[in-house]
Write a structure and sequence with these properties.
305 residues
């Protein structure tokens, strides 16, 4: 049992429980950079770990009624076969050093997309709340309407298919990428409903990809066991803390981690990555204040109180 992996799994599991995102996007880079696991083995071990960890979060959302079951059905129809296909694509590309570079590049791009997706999601959520308030729509009425919305089969299946392919190849996307796609197609879904719907559909999606990696990937049992020892209690602790922790702060921290991990996987030097992160830390809050003003809100949240 690797104590470092246990602690790493605890941290990532906590973030997943807190935000519903960041499983593959954080776990795989952690395994590659901090523990020296090769990218293929990292993806395989992460997916098997997620297949066991995600049902804990899904069960909580099912109990609280924040799941659109119709959307889950259409998403699974597209994601499960494409996730398995993603594993076969990796196998077809071969197992030399070239395939590891392909995986690292694909993972890096997926992480950068996920980072910007988090920012876009926060902005669209804020703008949606402003529009609902202007129309006099209460949060309760909005939530009831969101759960009763009519599913759009074709775009929903396509979201599942594309997301499943990315998950099968990189282990990234079952949370952040799928949530942002759902948010764009179904803007009436609130954050908790997006997370709940995504977590439930992610269970068969990740299971399909995990089975593929067990058969054709580079699964490491010792790595997965150590991760599970930490990630399962981490998910439970994160779910408990989610009702108290400021979600905006967590999303910003997660976006920075995703950005840094993506840049490193794409071969950006440490010094350049540090500069980009510093610039993001300085300009990000200023840009967000400007976005709040454009939506008729005070620049600082405390000013609204």
């Amino acid at each position: 049992m690797d104590v470092g992996l246990v602690l790493g799994g605890l941290v990532v599991g906590f973030i997943v429980g807190l935000t519903g995102m960041g499983g593959g996007a954080l776990m795989t880079p952690m395994l590659v950079f901090f523990f020296g696991v090769n990218p293929l083995a990292a993806v395989s071990s992460d997916l098997v770990t997620s297949a066991i960890m995600k049902p804990f979060g899904a069960a909580v959302h099912l109990q609280h009624g924040t799941v659109n079951r119709a959307l889950v059905g259409w998403l699974v129809l597209g994601s499960v076969p494409s996730a398995f296909l993603g594993v076969l694509v990796l196998r077809a590309l071969g197992r030399d050093t070239g395939i590891e570079e392909v995986v690292k590049t694909a993972l890096g791009v997926a992480l950068l997309v996920a980072a910007f997706a988090l920012i876009a999601k926060a902005y669209v959520t804020m703008a949606g709340r402003v529009r609902r308030r202007a129309k006099g729509v209460t949060e309760v009425a909005s939530a009831r309407g969101a759960l009763n919305l009519v599913a759009r089969p074709l775009p929903t299946i396509l979201i599942g298919a594309v997301g499943g392919l990315v998950v099968g190849m990189t282990s990234v996307g079952s949370g952040s990428l799928m949530i942002i796609a759902l948010m764009l197609v179904y803007p009436r879904l609130q954050a908790s409903q997006l997370v709940g719907t995504d977590l439930v559909q992610a269970v068969p999606l990740v299971a399909s990809a995990a089975i593929g990696h067990l058969l054709f990937g580079d699964f490491r049992l010792a790595v997965a066991l150590s991760l599970l020892v930490g990630s399962i209690p981490g998910v439970l602790l994160g779910a408990i803390a989610s009702s108290r922790a400021p979600g905006g702060l967590i999303r910003r921290a997660l976006a920075l981690v995703l950005l840094a991990s993506g840049l490193k996987l794409l071969g950006v030097t440490t010094s350049v990555t540090a500069v980009i992160l510093v610039v993001s830390l300085v300009l990000g809050p200023l840009a967000w204040m400007g976005a709040r003003r454009r939506n008729g809100l005070p620049a600082l949240r405390r000013a609204a109180a």
